[in-house]
Amino acid sequence: MLDGIAVGGFNVIDIRELADRTRLPVIIVIRNKPNLKRVLSALKNVPNSKEKAKLIAKAGKIREVKVGDGKIYFQCKGIVVSKAKEIIQTAVSRGHMPEPIRTAHLIAAGIVEGESKGRA
């Protein structure tokens, strides 16, 4: 389970290759529905923009899942969509983010800032 398809800015993850190499399902969790037009426009300003745009397209359809009283979005590879939805819904116990993502944010904030700001 990953928080977004890009890390460190626009370092786009090839989720199909990640799923294939690890032989594990990959679920990309997205807090807010992305505006793909704006994302692709912004990508034009970074090196290897065409390859990165292809990886975003290759990741597949962005889907919606209801969690608590809200919703989040996701993409997945190596797992059927209904199972990915079930996993996401089961993993959300507070707020709208799955616990693995929320916990990773808390740990990272603690390391970088010395404390969490409570936004995870």
Structure report:
The protein is of the alpha+beta class and 120 residues long. It has a single domain, classed as archaeoglobus fulgidus dsm 4304 fold (2-Layer Sandwich), CATH 3.30.2170. The chain is built from five helices and six strands. It has a four-stranded mixed β-sheet with strand order 1-4-6-5, with helices on both faces. The mean pLDDT is 89.
Question: What is this structure, in a nutshell?
Answer:
By secondary structure, the protein is an alpha+beta fold. Helix content is 43%, strand content 20%.
Number of helices: 5
Main β sheet profile? 4 strands, mixed
In CATH, the homologous superfamily goes by the name: archaeoglobus fulgidus dsm 4304 superfamily
Order of the strands making up the biggest sheet:
1-4-6-5
The unreliable regions are none
The CATH class, by name, is: Alpha Beta
From the alpha carbons, calculate the radius of gyration and give it in angstroms: 15 Å
The number of E-state strands comes to 6
**What name does CATH use for the topology?**
archaeoglobus fulgidus dsm 4304 fold
- Classify the secondary structure makeup into a structural class: alpha+beta
CATH level-two architecture = 2-Layer Sandwich
Strand content: 15-25%
